[in-house]
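Q: Predict the assembly, please.
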Amino acid sequence: MKSTPAVITPSSSSTTTPDGSFATAIDDVIARLSVVLLGKHLQIRQSLACLLAGGHLLIEDLPGMGKTLLSQALAKVLGLTHSRIQFTSDILPGDITGASIFDRDAGAFRFVPGPIFAEVVLADEVNRATPKTQSALLEAMEERQVTVDGETRPLPQPFYVIATQNPATQTGTFPLPESQLDRFLMRIEIGYPDPDAERELLKGGDRRVALERLAPCMNRESLIDAQAAVERVKASDPLIDYVQRLVQFSRQESEFAFGLSPRGALGLLKSARAWALIHRRSHVIPEDVQAVLPAVVEHRLRAAADFSGHGGGALAQKLLSNVDVLG
Amino acid sequence: MMAIDSHTGVGSQIPRLSLALLMLTQAVVVVPHGAHLSWWVIVVGLACAAWRWMVFQGRWGFPSRWIKVLLVTMAAIGVGLDVRLRALSAFSLETATALLIVAFALKLVETRSRRDAYVVIFLSYFVIATEFLFEQTMAIAAYELLAVVLVTAAMVGLNQMHTRIRPLVSLRIAATLVLQAAPLMLVLFLFFPRMAPLWSVPLPGGAQTGITDRVTPGDIAVLTQSDEIAFRVVFDGPIPHPRALYWRGIVYSRYDRGTWSVGPQHTAAHEPPLQLDIGTSTPRRYEVLLEPTQGVWLFALETPVPVSPGVELTRDYRLVADEPVRSLFRYRVDSFADYVADRSLPDWLERRETQIARGVNPRAVRFAAELAARYPNKRDYLDALLERIRVEPYRYTLNPPRLSSDDDIDEFWFDTRAGFCSHYAAAFVYLARLAGIPARMVGGYQGGEINPLTGHIVVRQYDAHAWAEVWLEDAGWVRMDPTAAVAPQRIEQGLDAALSEPDRATLSALTALRFGGSKIADLMYWFESLEHRWNVWVVGYDSDRQYHYLRQLLGGVSPVKIGLVMLAGGAVSLALVALSLFWRRRTQSGHPLERTFRHFGKALGRHGMPRAPEESPRAFLARVAQWLDKPASDLMPLVESLEALLYNPMPDQSRHQRRFVERGLRRLRLEAALRNRN
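A: Predicted assembly structure:
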């Protein structure tokens, strides 16, 4: 069969990437992150895909699972300026966006930018803040600009928010409403490490040290290039049909309280493209969609019979197992 | 009426918007019944709706059990009183319907769970069906069809999710459902045996319309204000001029104090049944579609011979039906215009047709004696009567002065000299009888209007007419129309031409419009022709015609054949629906290779290796390789090609590649089959 010229062998064209330099850079990023967060390859790749797709990331898990570690490592390894905001119940919108302060020397008000003016904003425990402060952050996420004292200031480009939150069932939290959850491209959970990784963790000591030693292997320009490359990843008609079937299913089945929004559908396809790029492919295959689907849709779905808002996982599985890959 | 308190979960509640739609539906299906319901039923319905609305808004609560019992008791008493007051029989259709509608309205105030809503929906269908017992016009049918769509939409709405009630979507789904049911409906309509009812309720009586079996001059003027259709006629041959069309209905032989009535009827015991000696003359053949009259009399041209079953000829050459006409009645008639009716007159009949009242109308008696002395010949005498009408200042009007005394013939003939057809006919007949000439008044319709679109004749109530028949030796019964003497244009051109301005003012707006000859009149013709076709093809499709058509179609009617036809028809209509569904799904599927691979998955499923929906080609082929005990790398070329074709399409992809994939899949199918064999 290999004599037939049209046959594509595994070694030749399936691994073509638009640009070899991304491939190595991305592999490098993954390798370095794996040193910091042990045994979490899937989560590392998902979060990377999220950022390559230009979306904001929500990491949700119990305290002490490495949420902050992952987010800080991501910012650092991508070579972006980053700031960290620790949300508490008494933090105010001005603490995030910045405020105008009277400068006695100049005799005028001077705008002091808040921590949000950074390329990566780590919003730690975002659900501890009051809704008012949350919405200030989430508005900035959507508009990519901040308005203070009537003046609109653009945020840097690229601009990512990596928010972490405790599960909403924990005490002292203000759960994010659906409309604001929708603005996060992905929500991932980290989960307990497997025994091997845990053993290595226990032997190796504090991961903070590894974080300190982490050197950036991308920068702002190469990241923007990589984002552009994501846009160029091909999604064929049969694949888009598949995405449409998935979305349609979520809108029609009675188990779903509401279907996926167009923004959700768009996010799903874009994440799948990024996932394909990470895996050195110039086109999306159904496996890419399936890999990112739980992270993209879980926080956007709610079961009709469920009022707590945490049935998304089962629904994502239902989507996957019921919708035919082929039309 | 039962309280369903156990049904209080979220799932069994009626979504609010669905409830609104449900209430609208109820109103829509009850509206056509308004025509024959007592006013208090409507009031109860509105009150219940208002109550339910207050519950809907959260201001009031549901009625308690005792109030419900009270309401039901009162409603039952109300229906009972209704029966007494309107002199209906206890088991009449009106009573049953009133009971149904009242119960339907009361159901409103206890509709709280989904189950109640379903009861309301099924009742709505039933209420729709009952309306057809009262009226079967096309307008009603169209209205009820829309109502069916609305009820179905309400049912669809009940099954929508709480967060996603979209009335327009429900309506669209309902319309599609009704449309899909249409072929089956057609099959049932055409082939389902029309069985005689196992039990029967008296059909709705309603007020009599049209001419009646007793007439006081003046009655027919009331009819002329109505443009309701009396009947339609379809001629087999050419259509005669309306002037020649005297539709005989009732013969009035008995005069008593200004009132003419049919008089004592001759029964078959007196004389053998009437046998017409038709000879060789050719008849006029036509079919009449008579609107309900509640009477047994039918209308036909002179001298009729009934063709349809259930129609008989009476001694005075009228047609009567076996039963009162309570819904559209179709009958065929052959009319022999040349036939001489009653060459000789039996004594009893002569006595009947010369009966006069003693001691009244003295002036007429004197007048008749003088005239008869001057014209001994009977024909001359009658001509002189007509001549007098023509010459003296008699006039034709729809608003004649009232005749108040018992000497009404005198009063009209000598004093008022104004009247319309029945005045002239009555006076003419009476004066003929005073001269000893057998004469009788005939009531019916004269003329009609030809619908240019379908070529049938429409006879309306304002065509009602009365004329005279006199018996002359050798000639038998001869029609004489004194109205033609006073207002020839009434006969020649119809009522419109004979009317004066004040007369016109008494007509209804619609009748006046009909005479306008405008675009609107054309439109009316069009609607009329539609209604006519409806009557012929739908309402008039009775068991006889069904039998007739089925015999033509099947060459003989047996239960087995009907069953087979219904099965075939049902299968065809269901197949149509299935085909359209299949077609719609088919057009959605995209890439041909996707289909190929799906078939491949199904084929392997038959060998015990089914593909799960979420398995992509790569994942499934990997599993297949394992199942066939092959190294995964063996299938890699196939996987790569398939994936490239589906997900990485290139303009230069050759057909080779596709063929390679198809060949590879075929080979795998073969291997799977062999594996099972071993």
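Confidence is low (pLDDT under 50) at residues 1-18 of chain A. The first helix of chain A runs from residue 20 to 36.
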